[in-house]
């Protein structure tokens, strides 16, 4: 059974009939309101023009087309900071003496997660929600900073350790910390799917599912790389 069906009932979207009824109600309300002329006689208010009706229809259609929940917004907002930290970590590979295989992995992480950040920012902006800059650190919601880091994110001390490492030690720490980081992202997806009514939006559902699948695959790959690195290290 698909993940979507297992966790949430599918919400119905407003039908064209409902939308037309809403427009008709708005027109009726506008026509029913009356003003009075100098003699005190009621003067009917002119009905909305075509442009006003079109704008009303578009607003209602957009509302139906762009559903979201607080859990969706929290996930997309938090994952921007989460991805931003991964990009910083991966960006150190060339200057910190990482092996060719680690540098290839890091380049793939940077390319994928930059594209995903753009998707998340666009999703938030389309809904008139705050769009955070891709800066690693505590999540911000409604202009307020939440001190707790997203699951799996490195602490300042861990980031300092990684930045100070070079060569094989950087490879070892990078794999260790990025496995932790990816596992945190997977847990964020589980939390999202476990929130009632969340992930019904097509973009959120597809993105979250991709994160879970792709990062779980990378976790398995990095665990093998870390095991091989441990075997090749001098005792």
Tell me, briefly, the overall form: elongated
Total beta-strand segments: 4
The helicity comes to 55-70%
Biggest β-sheet, characterized? Answer: 2 strands, antiparallel
Strand arrangement within the widest β-sheet reads 1-2
Computed over alpha carbons, the radius of gyration is: 25 Å
Which descriptors would you attach to this protein?
mainly alpha; two-stranded antiparallel ribbon; elongated; two-stranded antiparallel sheet; 4 strands; 235 residues; disordered N terminus; 8 helices
Could you give a quick summary of the protein structure above?
The protein has 235 residues and is mainly alpha-helical. The chain is built from eight helices and four strands, in the order H-H-E-E-H-H-H-E-E-H-H-H. The strands form two sheets. Strands 1-2 form a two-stranded antiparallel ribbon. A two-stranded antiparallel sheet has the order 3-4.
Secondary structure topology:
Layout: H1 3-7, H2 16-32, E1 34-36, E2 42-44, H3 50-65, H4 70-91, H5 100-126, E3 140-141, E4 144-145, H6 156-164, H7 168-193, H8 202-232
Antiparallel strand pairs: 1-2, 3-4
Helix pairs in contact: 2-3, 4-5, 4-7, 6-7, 7-8
């Amino acid at each position: 059974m698909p993940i979507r069906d297992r966790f949430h009932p599918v919400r119905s979207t407003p039908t064209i009939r409902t939308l037309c009824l809403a427009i008709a109600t708005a027109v009726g309300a506008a026509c029913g309101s009356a003003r009075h002329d100098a003699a005190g006689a009621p003067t009917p208010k002119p009905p909305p023009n075509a442009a006003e009706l079109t704008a009303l229809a578009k607003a209602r259609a957009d509302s139906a087309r762009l559903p979201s929940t607080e859990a969706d917004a929290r996930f997309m907002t938090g994952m921007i900071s989460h991805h931003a930290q991964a990009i910083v970590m991966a960006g150190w590979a060339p200057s910190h003496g990482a092996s060719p295989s680690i540098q290839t992995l890091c380049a793939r992480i940077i390319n994928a997660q930059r594209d995903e950040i753009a998707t998340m920012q666009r999703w938030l902006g389309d809904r008139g929600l705050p769009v955070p800059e891709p800066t690693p650190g505590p999540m911000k919601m409604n202009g307020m900073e939440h001190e707790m880091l997203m699951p799996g994110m490195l602490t300042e001390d861990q980031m300092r350790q990684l930045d100070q490492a070079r060569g094989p030690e950087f490879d070892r720490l990078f794999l260790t910390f990025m496995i932790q980081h990816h596992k945190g992202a997977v847990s964020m997806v589980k939390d999202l799917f476990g929130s009632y009514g969340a992930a019904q939006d097509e973009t959120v559902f597809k993105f979250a599912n991709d994160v879970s699948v792709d990062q779980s695959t990378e976790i398995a790959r990095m665990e093998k790389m870390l095991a091989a690195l441990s075997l090749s290290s001098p005792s």
